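lol forgot to send this yesterday, sorry. struct tokens for the thing we talked abt
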């Protein structure tokens, strides 16, 4: 039994090392896209923090979702955050599964490049919307009488740039008309819908997205329009961005790194080599070689 466990552990370690080597090479080719996507997550947080200075509390707007869904109350607002955390962590673990399992369909770095592209495009639209129109926040800490509803003018630039993390993120106000949590949730669900393999998990993912939508409204964190805008906008963004990006290589037919797309440097060097051979009268057909 011990010998069997040791043998399987050795195989798993070799698999992890081989996958890590492949992913590191991919990261070296695509690090600019990953870094740009991560930097924009900070920019998005900075924009949401900035609009809090413009927020002016007022009466909660009339909302159909508030009439139809019972209010969870401030003490149960954590439920929607728990669902979102579960969706987020589950998706992250799924993108890391090629390091563990033999059956692989995606490359971790490439899938995150795509996910970050979806997030950035959606978040740009979100920033435009909540800076175009400021609405009185429906969340409990954004209402009249709350000390967090208005932010005093910043005393220095550093106070704005640091976003007062994590309190500034959790207790933000004014970033409405588009739900940030739903952007992440729908991007993750749509990505798994296309690249995932388990039908039952896809169905559960869509169910969780619907539950998350209802919980956000029931928690009074967003208006119903914020959820509705997120649902159709994120789907459109993913559709059009997918059409612009090259299709990801499918690993389900084999695990050979030959499926990896050539980098620009590799393509250029290969083209120069072939042109050089043609100019010297040499054939580039490898089939003619002995």
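and heres what i got for the seq, position by position
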């Amino acid at each position: 039994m011990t010998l069997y466990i040791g043998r399987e552990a050795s195989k798993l370690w070799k698999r992890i090392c081989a996958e890590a080597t492949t992913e590191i090479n991919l990261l070296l080719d695509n690090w600019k896209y990953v870094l740009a996507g991560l930097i924009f997550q900070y920019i998005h947080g900075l924009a949401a923090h900035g609009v809090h200075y413009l927020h002016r509390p007022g009466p909660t707007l009339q909302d159909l979702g508030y009439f139809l869904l019972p209010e969870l109350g401030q003490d149960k607002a954590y439920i929607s955050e728990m669902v979102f955390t579960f969706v987020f962590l589950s998706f992250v673990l799924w993108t890391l599964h090629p390091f563990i399992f033999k059956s692989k369909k995606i490359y971790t770095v490439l899938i995150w490049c795509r996910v970050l592209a979806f997030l950035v495009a959606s978040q740009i639209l979100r920033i435009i919307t909540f800076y175009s129109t400021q609405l009185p926040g429906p969340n409990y800490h954004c209402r009249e009488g709350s000390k967090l509803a208005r932010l005093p003018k910043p005393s220095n630039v550093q106070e704005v740039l640091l976003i007062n993390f994590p309190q500034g993120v959790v207790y933000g106000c004014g970033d409405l008309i588009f739900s940030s949590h739903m952007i992440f949730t729908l991007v993750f669900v749509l990505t798994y819908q296309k690249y995932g393999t388990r039908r039952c998990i896809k169905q559960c993912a869509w169910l969780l997205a619907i539950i998350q939508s209802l919980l956000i409204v029931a928690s009074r964190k967003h208006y119903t329009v914020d959820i509705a805008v997120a649902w159709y906008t994120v789907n459109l963004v993913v559709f059009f961005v997918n059409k612009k990006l090259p299709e990801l290589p499918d690993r389900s037919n084999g695990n050979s790194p030959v499926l990896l797309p050539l980098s620009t440097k590799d393509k250029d060097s290969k083209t120069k080599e072939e042109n050089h051979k043609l100019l010297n009268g040499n054939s580039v057909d490898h089939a003619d070689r002995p």
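The chain has one domain: 31-250. anyway ping me if u want another try
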